[in-house]
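Board notes, transcribed. Complex of a protein with FE3-S4 cluster.
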Amino acid sequence: GIDPNFDANLEKVGEENGVDVWGLVDPPEKLGIHGTHVAVDYDICLADGACLENCPVDVFTWVDTPGHPESEKKVEPTYEDQCIDCMLCVDICPVDAIDVDAS
Ligand code: SF4
Ligand code: F3S
């Protein structure tokens, strides 16, 4: 699953769709982690969609990731500032691709 200490272990390498991106990033195969408060490991996400469908405040939006080995779309935590720390997405993701820093 996602490294919960990614913000200490990885460098912030840029921004996409208004959220931070944490490296290593080497597209299309390596896309890193998107978001900070709500973080999605793009190299683990396989586009299950349960997070996006069930988040009570609609934090996530789909983005296309053609050529990525796990899936050709991912969820962006576009509205991570709206997150209410319910932890539903963390619990429901079948591959533990999401970390929410509720501290
Ligand atoms: Fe949405 Fe809850 Fe996940 Fe926050 S913790 S992104 S509110 S499902
Ligand atoms: Fe991806 Fe997990 Fe959501 S696989 S789409 S982060 S439920």
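The first strand starts at residue 12 and ends at 16. The chain is about 15% helix and 25% strand.
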